[in-house]
Request: fold
Amino acid sequence: MSEPMRAMVRQAAAVAIEAERMQTAILLGEDVDTDELVRISNVLQRLMNGLKAKATIAKAGLRTSSSNSLRDKLLANKAAA
Reply:
């Protein structure tokens, strides 16, 4: 796993922990900024989607530095399949 991907995993884990902490606070009847919880949940979803995309790329053996070339490679792989 590349260092940028490891960093993304660590970030996703930290955000997930914060989201869980806030959800626990809700269950305990504590006041929670629901807007903040929604923002954190959205960040977590984006991170997880990014990790899924990176894992798909790594599994396919693709490497790219730009999203346009990534799109082209994914389309080419799909057309070849």
Remarks:
- The first helix runs from residue 3 to 27.
